[in-house]
Design goal:
This protein is α+β, with helices and mostly antiparallel strands and 341 residues long. It is built from twelve helices and nine strands. It has two domains: 87 residues; 236 residues, BirA Bifunctional Protein, domain 2. A hairpin with a 2-residue loop joins β6 and β7. The longest helix is centred in the first third of the chain and has 34 residues. The termini are far apart. It binds phenylalanine.
Length: 341
């Protein structure tokens, strides 16, 4: 008997219980009415009366052993189930802060320019960055083989010199004039390319926003007032504006747009080369040839156009000294432009 009960005790100890199913198997094997321990109780009647007491004690021991193991593992398994059911969300925990991104300074400037002009009725137009000669040059009154084309160092396609990366977004305005009837009031922001060595002050790729207004009786005064409004909105009411006579094949008369230096307020400093003025773009009255090239009656309509560099305006506004910072994607630089302009 002793031997028997030792084996049974070992079996009880060794029985693996890791889940509910095994727990039930354990109960069936040892504790239930047909279990090994209960069967031993049934043996009682075959035991000689003088041994009954010892036998009974031993079987009770086994019964307690099995019951104790059952109770212990039942609790463990129920706890595991509780843990699995538990919703891990703890609403009292402090939140993990979101990492705020920042918008690129050029995006901020472009959006601000767009916002200012759309407020006075300009819409937006876009066009291809890979352009043909007609839209980038010919329609804009650049004569064939004329040195004026050299003004804008162009990336031509070697296999087909009729195709180039656009040097300005005036090409988009040509497309608008071809497809729409005046009045036209449109803004074309976009990326442009020029074959220049990359330095702190020049890049082979930069961004422009150009504007075009065509209607009956549009005058230089309208151009000046529009840009006056823009400059005050963009840079503040204390900033002055001046037009300097210039030349572009597509405008006549043409002007360079200067604003009073933001750094020294016009007194003269390194940024404005002690002139008190800095250039932000070009402008002029659309040359009648351009209107005709695009199918617009130049006797009925006149228009003005202007163009400015987004990098240039951003540099002036934030006193950024190196153009290359815009394309290096150094997060220490970019992180500084969280808000709007
Ligand atoms: N397209 C000119 C440039 O890129 C800018 C400009 C636009 C000048 C419209 C005058 C009128 O240099």
């Amino acid at each position: 008997m002793l031997e028997n009960s030792n084996t049974l005790a070992a079996q009880i100890a060794a029985f693996p219980i890791e889940n509910k199913v095994q727990l039930e198997e354990f109960r069936m094997a040892f504790i239930s009415k047909k279990g090994a321990v209960s069967l031993l109780f049934d043996e009682m009647k075959n035991i000689a009366p003088e041994n009954k007491k010892a036998f009974g004690a031993e079987v009770n021991l086994l019964k307690n052993l099995a019951q104790a193991k059952f109770d212990e593992f039942k609790e463990v398994i129920e706890n595991q189930e509780d843990a699995a059911d538990f919703d891990a969300t703890d609403f009292t925990l402090p939140t993990t802060p979101n990492q705020l991104g920042s918008r690129h300074p050029l995006t901020l400037t472009r959006e601000r320019i767009i916002e200012i002009f759309t407020r006075i009725g300009f819409n937006l137009s876009e066009g291809p960055e890979i352009e043909d000669d007609f839209h980038n040059f010919t329609a804009l009154n650049f004569p064939e083989n004329h040195p004026a084309r050299e003004m804008q160092d162009t990336f031509f396609l070697e296999r087909n010199p009729d195709i180039a990366l656009r040097t300005h977004t005036s090409s988009v305005q040509v497309r608008v004039m071809e497809n729409e009837k005046p009045p036209i009031r449109t803004l074309s922001p976009g990326r442009v390319y020029r074959n220049e060595a990359i330095s702190a002050r020049a890049h082979c790729m930069f961004h422009q926003v150009e504007g075009l207004y065509i209607n009956e009786n549009v005058s230089f005064a309208d151009l000046k007032q529009t840009l006056y409004y823009f400059v005050k909105e963009m840079f503040g009411k204390d900033v002055n504006l001046r037009f300097r006579p210039s030349f572009f094949p597509f405008t006549e008369p043409s002007a360079e747009i200067d604003i009073s230096c933001l750094i020294c307020g016009g007194k003269g400093c390194n940024v404005c080369k002690h002139s008190g003025w800095v250039e932000i773009g070009g402008a002029g009255m659309v040359d009648p040839n351009v209107l005709e090239n695009c199918g617009i009656d130049s006797k009925k309509y006149t228009g003005f156009a202007f163009g400015m560099g987004v990098e240039r305006i951003t540099m002036l506004k934030h006193q950024i000294k190196d153009l290359r910072l815009f394309t290096e994607n150094d997060v220490r630089f970019l992180r500084q432009f969280k808000g709007s302009l």
